[in-house]
Amino acid sequence: MAPTPLPLEQMPGANAGYLPAGQEGGPRINTMSMSVLIDFIIQRTYHELMVLAELLPRKTDMERKVEIYAYAARTRHLFTRLNALVKWGNSVSKVDKSSQIMSFLDKQNMLFVETADMLARMSRETLVRARLPNFHIPAAVEVLTTGTYNRLPTCIRERIVPPDAITPAEKKQTLLRLNQVIQHRLVTGKLLPQMREFRIRNGRVTFEVKHEFSVALTVMGDSPNVPWRLLDIDVLVEDKETGDGKSLVHPLQVNYIHQLIQARLVENPNALSEVYNCLHYFCQSLQLEVLYTQTLRLNYERLDDNNITVEEYVPGVKLTVSYWRDLKSELGYRLTVQSDPSEIGRPLVVVHVPSLGAKESAEVADRAVRSEHLSMERLIVHTVYIRSVSRLSDLKLEFQAFLKDVDFNLQGTPAILTVPVLSPCLRAEQIHITIDTHTGMFRCHVPKHLDCPITEEMQDCLNTDRSKLPALLSELRYWITHRRCEKTLQHLPATATETLPFLTLPEQELLQPGRHKIYVKLHRHPNIILVVQLKEKPAMPNEMEYTFHLGFVVFQKDENDVVDDSAKQLVSIVAQPPSEIPKLYTKLMRLIEFDTFVATHGPGTEVDEVSPHKRKSNGDILAPPAKQQKTIFPAYFIPELAHVVAMCDEKIPFLNLAQTLSKYRIPHSGLQVEANATSLVLKILALPQPGTNNQATTAAGEQKPAPAPSTSSALPKIEPHVWDDLMRRVLSISVRSQTNKNSQVRIWVVEFVFYSTPLQSTHQKELGSRRTINLTYEQANHDFSKTVEDLLNDWSKIVYLYTLVYDFAEQLRNKRLSLGDMLVVKSYTYANLLLGYGPKKEVTCNIYWSVQSHGFRLTFVGGISAVNAHSMMRDQLAQHLNQQHSLTTIAHILHETYNPMSSIAKLPVLPLLGIPRPQVPVLSFCMLPQSPCLMRLTYQAVYCLELRFRANRLVSIRDGASSRFERNVIEEFTPIQGLKAFLSKYVDESAVYRGRAPHDDDNPLSPMGLEDNFGGPSSVTGVSAGGSSPFLSAGMRGPQSPRDSGLRFPAPHTPPSSSNPHTPASPHPSAGGGGGGGAQSHANFNLTSPPAPHMPHPSPGGLMPSSPLNPQPSPHMVHSPGPNTLYMQSHQDSPFTAMSPANNNWPGSPSMPRPSPRPGQSPEHKSTGGGGPGVGAGDRNVTRGTLNRPWAGAVPTLLTHEALETLCRPSPHPNKDINVADMSPLERFLGCVYMRRQLHRNIQSEETLTALNSTEPGVVLFKVDGLQCQVMLNQLHMQSLHLKVTQLPPMPDKPTFQLSPDDLLVIEQYFDTRVAAPPYRPNALHSICRLLNLPGHVLKDFVQIMRLEMKPELGGDQLKWTVQMCMRMSPSAMPIVPIGSACVVLGRMKILFFLHITRIPYNGKDWKDSPSLVLPIVHDIATNLTQVAERREQVQSPTMSAASALLRRFADFGVQQNQCSLFPAVTELLTNLQITTDLPPPPPNQPIGPPVGVGVGVGVGVGVVGSSPNTMMPMQQLQPQVGHGPQLGPNPGGPQ
Asked: With contact defined as beta carbons under 8 Å apart, do 1017 and 1076 qualify?
């Protein structure tokens, strides 16, 4: 491969320039690289610029401009040439390349020629004479043997090798000798005093003149004629402000001075004086130049010509500078720096005009000129400081002329003169006077009050006419005192102001305009102002005297406004004026002057007198006088003002309250100061008896009408002996004022002190004999009449409650009544009575008097382990207490009704969904108290139970749907069929027999006789009755006994018609006059009385109390309020009052049938005795059919408290196959009755169901296609429904598909455990009825699904899923039908139903982790096709799509002829459905368990997967589901 020629640039010698002829081998001449040239130009430009930067600051302005212009022109010319060279270089590239080629060729040619010539010369000349040299044998032998060579020529040593240096000892001796010579020369010669400071060392003498120069000299010999030799000069003059640390003298200048002085030292007899004179003059001139330069720079940069200027500058002679040019002066203010001709050394000195003292002038020169830091600024600053001190000292003398005994202070840099205005006075409150350093004018200010308007006038006065200074100082003194007053009041409820909006200026001299007064507005008392008069003491103007006046003002819009006369009284109680437009003006009504000494020297207030010229410290001091001296108040704090304001603010409310008490004729002792001056107190001597005429009296003597008490109940009567006992117990009533720490609001605290109580409690704080009650009232409204009325109302609470407690205490001490076993008094505070009762005495009842309702109120609180069920009937108990005014009766009622009320409280009261409509919530149980011993229970707004609490731990229960007044049923409710038979299972005959009176043995109780008169011996007094309680013994019977003769026209038992318009008045006898137990007959009847007087009870028009939540007695409104509303809302009246079903004594009327209760035994209570007289004996002949009659429930059934507890307490289901949450037997019974009723209504409404007549009561009999169904209650416990299915014989003309007995048994079990089980939902009945109406071969497949659901193990090991049929629409299913509705839909020969499938866990998983899915399945009876229902508008999940695809594939290949495809399709789905999270199938021997949380035979509603919705459907799902009906069949368009 041929060699590649190198580029021209890379060839050797390619970079060589073009060489002329004869110079090819030499370097290029006069050539330079372009980059090097540019670097040289830039460096030269930068160097010249730096030189200019160093030299220009020392030149004049014109010289600087010339130099800058020359530099710019020179640099511009240079760069212009460079630009031309660069342009030329771009155009000669070709010529350069040609020259390089020619140079390279010439060089090669020269190399060839030189090589040939050298070879020829060597062959012809050099090699011909080439011989070996003669070696120098002696020299070689000498070097090799001795190692040296001594035969070199001596001239080398003499001319090249230097001589040996002298030794250090010789050097030291020589220098010492030289020092002696120099010392001798200095002693024998003339030496100036300025050069007396020198040092001799190392053969030289160094003279140093401070702040000027330092010079070193020596001599070259010891002859006296040898001149001095100048060695070194060091200039000590520096410019530390403008010199930037550089030397002020150039080295060339130093060399010039060095040569000049050295020349003058030759043949000069006073050589040293010449050296000093030359260097001193040079350094002094340099110092003046530095000062001059600093002055110019100071004037240029920071100060202008008005502040400082150079008047004269003579180089090397003097410098004159003037300052304070704005200050008017004859000579002006200036200073001159020049040589001092009076001294020998002629140093620089400062001359001042006007002249200063010699001491101050020397101090200025020493500080600024004769120092290391040469500074004109320091010279001027120090001069200005001395001038300022001088002027302020003169001003101080002027102040001392009219301010005696005042401590002035002149100090600081810059100098400040402080002048105290008041005594004592903070430094921040003093006048600070200084001088402006630039202008020389006086400046003054008060640091604490920078916004003071008087300081500007005072400053002008200081700079011009000073005769106004005393007047301005007085004004400033008043102004600062005003600010002190504001500062003193900043933490008090008051505001200081200098003026008030007077419409007409008052005539008092005190209130005339000026600074001699200040107004103080009290925040809590807007109609009262405090006028503080300020006055200077004649002897000590710096001290102020304070005089206080109290003024009463009113507010008016103009002069024509009428002023309220109440403002003229001593203490005003006018309300605060409204802050609205138009503006209100102030009018002074009265002005009262305070005696300052008396005001500040009250009880607990002491004044410590100090020196006559010192300030007094006044205030409320609780410490003894020895500690008073240590009390130090801030100078800005005025204790007299603070004390007077606090006194007015504290005492005025007490005076208002005392005046109001006098108006209400309440005696009091007046305002007093408590011991040790702790607080103010107002003692009330006595309070009137509630209900007496103690209204407030107006100014005219008229009494204000008192509000009329409520007529709902009479006020308790206060017996004289009770009132006297209470008055003896009242020890004191004290009124004090306090401030709430949280809200900072003033409140009244009224303290009642009592001596012990008639009722001893168990509270630890109530064991002593001193009882205290503290009542609080707000003071913010300024309405003292309301405060007194509130106090009287609280006093009435104490008195009325004491009337109850006084009688109750006597009965509590009576051991025969056993009240101590029923309850315990936990607390009695005279205002509240807290009773504890119950088994453990842990539930409490709080009894107190309510002023608003004019009656007693009761509040109930539960204990730790029990709830207080009496809360639901607190209104009835309160009304009973307000009627009877007896705590003993309330105690018996609470004790006897605690257990049944606790049992009733265990019933659920939560709202449920799906009854009767899926999206309408209905209360399960709703408690409606009617009286303290009468309770109504509603179940799902359909059924009603009436419970009446009786003595001897008995409760009577009857059907509340039956009216007491008529022979019909209340429209709102439905009679409960089988109620009597159900309740009879819980009757304890022995307890009922023990509860009866002995005289009743011969008189068996009739059905109506079981409900005695509410005022009789076997019932509790009603709300409006006046009888005694059934829980009291015969000895505690009320004043009106039921055995007394009755009235001819008894009073109605119901409340007035205003309480409830739907409740008519009842004409039956009252408790006080009516007979009990049918003892009285109605011989005479008044035809003008209301109709049906023989009916013992009014017909309730509505079940809900009259309240805003229940305006109408509609059955839909019965369940609307929640349980808390029913329990806690305040009912002042009730439509269901205490009524007694007296015997039917209306003449000519038919008698009520009287079947007695069946003597059945309770499941948990066995009878303890055999047959005998009474209820048990009369009930043995009653048949089961009689107990199941609809009217049988209207007859009351007596149950014990234990039986009621068994009825209401949640317990497991009697049927062990139904595994649901615990429910009470009563709820299960009512749920079954409700389901049976709904089934009957469903049969009546469905065309496919045929109702059949049944001879047995309570049995629902119907038939469907080929089947006869019978639904009945389980007669053993009556808490579950049972379905009996019978195959009808086939008809000749119509063949019927026959089901096997096993299939019929599966249907019955499925109905019992899945449909009619809790939670009781009627829509499940619709679904099962629709399934029973299907064709036989389709029903057969559904029976197979039911069997597989109840027994999953029948499916074998190949099933991957468990199945459950949904009887109601689940919230998690596809919203084809509304949630909670029946989810079995028939139409157009198609069946829509829902299956809930759950994956069987495997590989150690749990049921709770198994996925589940609700599938809508559609079966077409005509085409025998089973598939998943789809909706076009809804997107399906992947699992739903997989199930749909699986069923479509099964329909194409797996359907057999003459076989229903429903159950095979479901089996295929349970066997082969795969989801994305599936793992390998479980092992074949793995047992198949139930779905999540259930077992075999699990009932509906307890977590059953695929079952109907839960017991309580979430309220979020109440929105109606809007759809277009079910989409039956597959959707080829995909999910929607």
From this structure: yes
